[in-house]
Amino acid sequence: MHDTQFDRRLSIAPMMDHTDRHFRYFMRLLSPHVVLYTEMITTGALLHGDRDRFLKYNDVEHPLALQLGGSKPEELAECAVIAETAGYDEVNLNVGCPSDRVQNGQFGACLMANAALVAECVHAMQSRVTIPVTVKTRIGIDEQDDYAFLHNFIESVKQSGCRVFIIHARKAILSGLSPKQNREIPPLIYERVYQLKQTFPDLQVIINGGFTQQQDITRQYQHVDGVMIGRAAYQNPYLLAQLEQVIFDQQFSVPSRSTIFEQYCQYMQQQMQQGERIKNMSRHIIGLYQGQPGAKRFRRALSQAMPGTEQDKLELLDDALALMSGIS
Ligand SMILES: Cc1cc2nc3c(=O)[nH]c(=O)nc-3n(C[C@H](O)[C@H](O)[C@H](O)COP(=O)(O)O)c2cc1C
Question: pTM of the entire structure?
């Protein structure tokens, strides 16, 4: 049995093609305490692919969790050891992704139908590492969508020693919907997640799905232990700085958007010198001025094709910042 170790009141959801190390660095500039997750990494990719590239992170990213996709207990256990050795603070198992590709690999959301296997996976992982092994899942799949199903799933996986469950509060429909539709069409049922916390007060239950507003987020603490934010963190990242102050540290002096921008530019410059491409990094901050006058212009300036050398591109970003002068 392991302590859950760090404050999980707020976390940023794992998102493929979004939560790479550059985006996580950006998030950390905005919030010193939010818990960060990698994109999902399959066991196959980690065991046989470019491991250093998948594992690379910046020390400021802690607390940092690695999310795994897989369903073979031995492979997952091996990957958990790799994550712990690399310094990650948590390993998370993806039991929520509905994509066909993931279903063909027999992992993600379809694993909800096989609680015994998920329990076996978690047990195998947890027996090899001291960092917490957590599970991110949904409230159900297809027709298996009542509370009893969710309850039984959690009860079984809990037996394996898992103490932290992140619940995306909508079911997954495993055929006929794209992953994007599966994040929008099945209705959000937050009450299911609240009920879970009532039934299992000893578990840490983190709610996920549809949170965009500060008040709605802080209200969740009446019911559950934490809130995980996905798309809103990407679309409106500055929300994170405001949440940092409200949730973690009332003394936190919220940095201005332009300060964040400048800090991130310094980071991009360092990374550029190590061969990273500006475009791969600048794409993460297009939402920084969301809701402010000129946000559209800023987004456009960052999204356009940038000519010239990498250094030229970095300088073009200064022009984008100049567009926003006067807006903090
Ligand atoms: C572009 C994108 C990629 C995602 N990739 C993953 C992933 O790799 N692993 C995962 O567990 N969930 C993934 N999700 C789902 C999110 O983690 C989250 O559960 C979902 O977006 C609902 O939260 P939100 O309404 O706050 O966005 C992804 C979501 C998006 C939008």
Answer: 0.97
Nearest CA to ligand 1 atom 19: 168
Compute, in angstroms, the gap from residue 15 CA to the centroid of ligand 1. Answer: 5
Residues 203, 287: Cα–Cα separation, whole Å = 34
Helices (H) then strands (E): counts for the chain: 15, 8
Q: Supply 35's token pair.
A: 């818990």
Which domains does the chain show, CATH number per domain?
10-248 (3.20.20.70), 257-323 (1.20.120)
What percentage of the chain reaches a pLDDT higher than 90? Answer: 86
DSSP conformational letter for 309: -
231 lines ligand 1 (CB under 6 A): yes
What is the residue whose two structure tokens read 């139908």? 113
Q: What is the pLDDT of residues 233-260, one digit of tens each?
A: 999 999 999 999 999 999 999 999 999 9
pLDDT of amino acid 228: 98
Is 108 near ligand 1, meaning CB less than 6 Å away?
Answer: no
Q: What is the pLDDT of residue 4?
A: 59
Expressed in angstroms and rounded, the spacing between residue 20 Cα and the centre of ligand 1 is: 13
126 neighbors 133 (Cβ within 8 angstroms): yes
Q: Which of the residues are catalytic?
A: 97
Q: For strand 204-208 and strand 36-42, is the pairing parallel, antiparallel, or unpaired?
A: unpaired
Does ligand 1 come within 6 angstroms of the Cβ of 230?
yes
Q: Are 260 and 288 in contact (CB under 8 A)?
A: yes
Q: Per residue in 257-283, pLDDT tens?
A: 999 999 999 999 999 999 999 999 999
Separation of CA 291 and ligand 1 centre (Å) = 22
* Probe target for ligand 1 pocket from 91, 231, 239, 284, with the most ligand atoms within 8 Å of CB: 231
CA of residue 190 to ligand 1 center, whole Å:
17
User: For 50-54, 124-128, 320-324, which range has the lowest pLDDT when averaged over its residues?
Assistant: 320-324
